[in-house]
């Protein structure tokens, strides 16, 4: 492996040294000054001297087991291990003496005598620390021979689809065990046995797949030998160059190094200095990238005039001409507002910006929306109203300074795993945890983690919960009076205080609503208000409700009331679902907002865009996604450009969405696969994966990071290039040569982005907006001295029960969520080995509810709501509370959204996915909808296969 790929390893982590005290010592005759608390090993490395090592690595705390890093220190007896010895003022260290050389050789001899000497054919050849150390120590012979007791015949564990465990190569350095504990926080590995018998094992001597392992790969990366090795490396060999890019799955936005051989990815390695992830990744980002080269990729544009027609493969020119002519025809016949577009939160900022520009400037209307509509639109609304900016307030790293962590309606270990690892690290260090969730998520109790409070509320009662938490804080005198007096609007605060203080908002009064014992709510409120730095993290369990926006405002109220905004360790932190959901909102993909969250009715702002874009813009907001469906059914909305979103699978009430699709005359889908929406499309434009384009994503911390092209677009164009060509055909010229020019335009027109450029991203690695003259390198923490809106605004949060009521007919509440190994509609992860963990969606049900209905584990159950019916296999589990059932929605045939209703958030129309009244009963066969789905799927696949089989 060439040098550029290997990140330098300084042996031990930097010291936690808030006082910035320094120490000067002498290493091999050179004076060296380092931060107090630094290890001798790291001090030497910082000054350019690499001390041999095996059990130490700078991502893990030192362990001191291999004895290879011995040094001599004047005035000390023996040979201390440099990895576990901290520097001291005036210390004199020697790292290279003949005695040390002899000792190190002796250590290496022992290792090598129990190691298969198959270096030439070993997958780690060229990237093996044991091999390197044999070279560094000058090992030339093994005096003990290779015939004694050894572990060379131990069997390989190949159970994990992505890596192997070859115990015969293990040197028992413990790095994997520590990585699993310290970096990942899963504690799946142990060293069993003692002395010569000691071996690494997963779980209780199980295979990796049977154990608690979540396949994050941290152990694989930490392993200095080929014991733990990626199967892709075993198959392809070592990479020869790398390109740093950003994960395209969740809103954590991990920085990843794509290690490449030519244009083929050999493996993904989390970037060591990536600020969102600091060298960690999860099973999706690290391993689940095979979808990018999956055989199902759509590689040729296709058109058809009716969805019952076979697809016809055509050239890009023909497909784009056809799409443009259809949009023009529809507008001529039905009016300018009869078409619209959908921006993808999976695509880059630059691509999203172009789609909204195309809609506003080329279509000439504001009918543009994004999938954030169905996830975090209430976050945008609620935080803008209270704090003044539609975004989270902190960096992920800030959680390291939190004393009390409140997690509401989020399941970070599954949804945001790399952030969950950070959070768990802080909890293991002593931070307290409050979980507010209807389901017993892993964070409630897992190895070395236990929540102080789990407020297991009924779905749909979040507002009652946040108001009763606030009631305790107000009535028990726990308010941050000074913060409120200095930073918040008096009048709004007084009104809010009087409101929450009402007896009707007390935990006792709300107990019958939330189902949570009042004493627990009181305890949690006291802990949050008095426990030090309090940080709130929330997810779709907050937003996807009829009162989603109200809960977001209630969360902001709680943070202001306790003074927990404007410094590290605190804040209001929405955990964004998709990789670029923050970015797609920032760049103007909502129908009422131009880039930077500025209302289309604001004449000054509109004039700026009109001048820059050379067109007149509409001053009225356009249609939201659900309104597009309504308008399609009314006959006034006939054409849609849908880039990288699968609305048929992901939007609620599938039958309703399908009727709307069928009512349109031209649906243009741009995607990497023929997804559920594409089955209703008339033009299918091949999309490009994140590996095939340049651009940027913005994660949940407002961090803008580069996406870099590692291979040419498989179908010829990156997504932004396709939008450019479509716009040109519609008569609105776009002339971008590179996404950096699009970012330059965003920066020119958006005050919060004015300091952003690709050159600066190159220099800084990533930038958290706002980035402008006032904050040229970005803004890690927002609202420091004052809120963006000036004074923080408390808003009254009156609990209004949802219309979705349980009845005798529908006595259970269904709520939904994600699982670690799969991602949203599953289009990508279902096309990877991740299906080995989760090959179908299951219905989780409490044993009591299951028994009442005669339901056994694994049995097929029908789930019926007012909207529809589907069938899944049951998973009987005490994770659920009685009366509540749960499922994931990663497989289209599950039809989770066949049963969700059209109820939505009052302010933003975000669907109420988390509350659907259902009945559940044992059944023998799939639902009618599923049978029709299977038939339609077969039909559409046949129409696609017929087209792709045609000679070019
Ligand atoms: S892959 Fe991750 S979870 Fe599994 S054993 Fe390794 S470090 Fe632990
Ligand atoms: S598997 Fe690798 S990291 Fe773990 S103890 Fe063995 S050699 Fe060390
Ligand atoms: S945590 Fe999210 S961003 Fe990071 S690797 Fe996993 S899926 Fe990708
Ligand atoms: S590297 Fe220091 S004891 Fe192993």
Radius of gyration from CA coordinates:
29 Å
Beta-strand percent range: 15-25%
Bound compounds, please? iron/sulfur cluster, FE2/S2 (inorganic) cluster
Number of beta strands: 37
Write the layout of secondary structure elements.
Blueprint: E1 22-27, E2 30-35, H1 40-46, E3 72-73, E4 92-94, H2 98-113, H3 129-136, E5 156-157, E6 163-166, H4 175-184, E7 189-192, E8 199-202, H5 218-222, E9 228-230, H6 231-236, E10 241-246, E11 255-261, E12 264-270, H7 283-287, E13 302-303, E14 312-313, H8 316-334, E15 339-343, H9 349-363, E16 368-370, H10 377-386, E17 404-408, H11 412-415, H12 417-428, E18 432-436, E19 445-446, E20 449-450, E21 453-455, H13 462-475, H14 481-487, H15 490-501, H16 507-514, H17 518-530, E22 534-538, H18 540-543, H19 548-561, E23 571-574, H20 581-586, E24 593-594, E25 598-599, H21 603-613, H22 625-634, E26 639-643, H23 647-650, H24 654-663, E27 666-671, E28 683-686, E29 695-698, E30 703-707, H25 719-729, H26 739-749, H27 758-764, E31 766-768, E32 812-817, E33 842-845, H28 847-852, E34 860-864, E35 869-876, E36 884-888, H29 896-899, E37 916-922, H30 928-948
Helix pairs in contact: 8-25, 9-25, 9-26, 10-19, 13-16, 13-17, 13-19, 16-17, 22-24
The structure holds iron/sulfur cluster (SF4) (3 copies) and FE2/S2 (inorganic) cluster.
One iron/sulfur cluster (SF4) binds next to helix 4.
């Amino acid at each position: 492996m060439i040098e550029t790929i290997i990140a330098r390893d300084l042996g031990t982590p930097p010291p936690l040294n808030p006082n910035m005290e320094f120490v000067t010592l002498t290493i091999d005759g050179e004076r060296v000054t380092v931060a107090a608390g630094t290890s001798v090993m790291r001090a030497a490395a910082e000054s350019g001297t690499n001390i041999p090592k095996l059990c130490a690595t700078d991502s893990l705390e030192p362990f001191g087991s291999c004895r290879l890093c011995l040094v001599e220190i004047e005035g000390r007896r023996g040979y201390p291990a440099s990895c576990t010895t901290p520097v001291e003022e005036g210390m004199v260290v020697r790292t290279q003496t003949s005695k040390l050389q002899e000792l190190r050789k002796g250590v290496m001899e022992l290792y090598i005598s129990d190691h298969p000497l198959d270096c030439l054919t070993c997958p780690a050849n060229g990237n093996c620390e044991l091999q390197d150390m044999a070279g560094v120590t000058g090992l030339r012979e093994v005096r003990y021979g290779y015939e004694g007791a050894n572990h060379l015949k131990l069997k390989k564990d190949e159970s994990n689809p992505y890596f192997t465990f070859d115990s015969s190569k293990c040197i028992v350095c413990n790095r994997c065990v520590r990585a699993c504990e310290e970096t990942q926080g899963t504690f799946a590995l142990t060293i069993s046995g003692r002395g010569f018998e000691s071996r690494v094992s997963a779980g209780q001597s199980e295979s990796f797949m049977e154990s608690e392992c979540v396949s994050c790969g941290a152990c694989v990366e930490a392993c200095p030998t080929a014991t733990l090795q990626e199967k892709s490396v075993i198959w392809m060999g070592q990479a020869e160059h790398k390109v740093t890019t950003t994960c395209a799955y969740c809103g954590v936005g991990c920085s990843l190094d794509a290690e490449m051989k030519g244009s083929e990815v050999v493996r993904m390695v989390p970037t060591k200095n990536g600020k969102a992830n600091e060298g960690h990744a999860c099973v999706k980002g690290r391993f689940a990238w095979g979808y990018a080269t999956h055989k199902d990729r759509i590689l040729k544009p296709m058109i058809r005039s009716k969805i019952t027609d076979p697809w016809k493969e055509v050239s890009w020119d023909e497909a784009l001409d056809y799409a443009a002519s259809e949009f023009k025809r529809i507008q001529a016949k039905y009016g300018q507002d009869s078409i619209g577009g959908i921006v993808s939160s999976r695509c880059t900022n630059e691509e999203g910006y172009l789609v909204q520009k195309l809609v506003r400037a080329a279509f000439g209307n504001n009918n543009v929306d994004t999938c954030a509509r169905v996830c975090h639109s209430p976050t945008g609304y609620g935080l803008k109203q209270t704090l003044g900016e539609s975004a989270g307030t902190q960096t992920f790293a800030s959680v390291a300074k939190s004393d009390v962590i409140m997690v509401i309606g989020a399941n970070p270990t599954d949804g945001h795993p790399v952030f969950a690892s950070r959070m768990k690290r802080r909890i293991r260090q002593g931070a307290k945890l409050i979980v507010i969730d209807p389901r017993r998520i892993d964070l409630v109790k897992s190895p070395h983690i236990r929540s102080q409070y789990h407020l297991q509320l009924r779905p749909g009662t979040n507002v009652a919960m946040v108001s009763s938490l606030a009631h305790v804080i107000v009535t028990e005198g726990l308010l941050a009076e000074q913060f409120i007096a200095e930073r918040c609007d008096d009048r709004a605060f007084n009104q809010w205080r009087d409101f929450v203080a009402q007896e009707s908002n007390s935990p006792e009064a709300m107990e019958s609503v939330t189902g949570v014992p009042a004493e627990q709510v009181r305890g949690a409120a006291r802990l949050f208000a008095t426990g030090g730095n309090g940080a709130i993290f929330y997810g779709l369990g907050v937003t996807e409700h009829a009162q989603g926006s109200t809960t977001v405002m209630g969360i902001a109220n709680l943070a202001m009331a306790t003074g927990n905004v404007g410094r590290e360790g605190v804040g209001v932190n929405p955990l964004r679902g998709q990789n670029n959901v923050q970015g797609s909102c920032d760049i103007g993909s909502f129908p009422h907002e131009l880039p930077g969250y500025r209302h289309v009715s604001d004449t000054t702002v509109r004039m700026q865009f009109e001048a820059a874009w050379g067109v007149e813009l509409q001053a009225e907001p356009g249609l939201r996604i659900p309104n597009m469906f309504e308008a399609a059914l009314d006959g006034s909305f006939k054409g849609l450009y849908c880039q990288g979103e699968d609305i048929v699978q992901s939007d609620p009430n599938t039958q309703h969405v399908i009727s709307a699709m069928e009512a349109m005359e031209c649906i243009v889908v741009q995607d990497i696969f023929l997804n559920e929406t594409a089955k209703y499309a008339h033009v299918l434009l091949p999309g490009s994966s994140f590996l095939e384009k340049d651009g940027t994503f913005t994660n949940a911390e407002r961090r803008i990071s580069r996406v870099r092209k590692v291979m040419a677009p498989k179908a010829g164009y990156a997504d932004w290039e396709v939008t450019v060509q479509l716009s040109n055909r519609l008569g609105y010229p776009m002339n971008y040569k590179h996404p950096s020019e699009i970012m330059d335009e965003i920066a020119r027109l958006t005050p919060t982005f004015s300091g952003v450029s690709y050159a600066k991203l190159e220099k800084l690695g990533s930038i958290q907006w706002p980035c402008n003259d006032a904050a040229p390198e970005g803004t890690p923490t927002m609202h420091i001295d004052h809120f963006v809106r000036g004074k923080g605004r408390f808003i009254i949060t009156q609990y209004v029960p949802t219309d979705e009521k349980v009845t005798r007919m529908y006595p259970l509440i269904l709520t939904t969520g994600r699982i670690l190994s799969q991602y949203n509609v599953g289009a990508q992860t279902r096309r990877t080995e991740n299906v080995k963990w989760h090959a179908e969606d299951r219905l989780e049900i409490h044993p009591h509810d299951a028994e009442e209905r005669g339901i056994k584990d694994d049995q097929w159950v029908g789930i019926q709501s007012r909207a529809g019916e589907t069938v899944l296999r049951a998973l009987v589990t005490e994770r659920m509370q009685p009366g509540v059932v749960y499922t994931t929605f990663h497989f289209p045939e599950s039809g989770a959204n066949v049963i969700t209703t059209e109820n939505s958030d009052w302010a933003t129309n975000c669907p109420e996915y988390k509350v659907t009244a259902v009945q559940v009963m044992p059944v023998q066969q799939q639902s009618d909808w599923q049978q029709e789905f299977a038939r339609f799927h077969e039909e559409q696949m046949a129409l696609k296969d017929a087209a792709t089989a045609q000679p070019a």
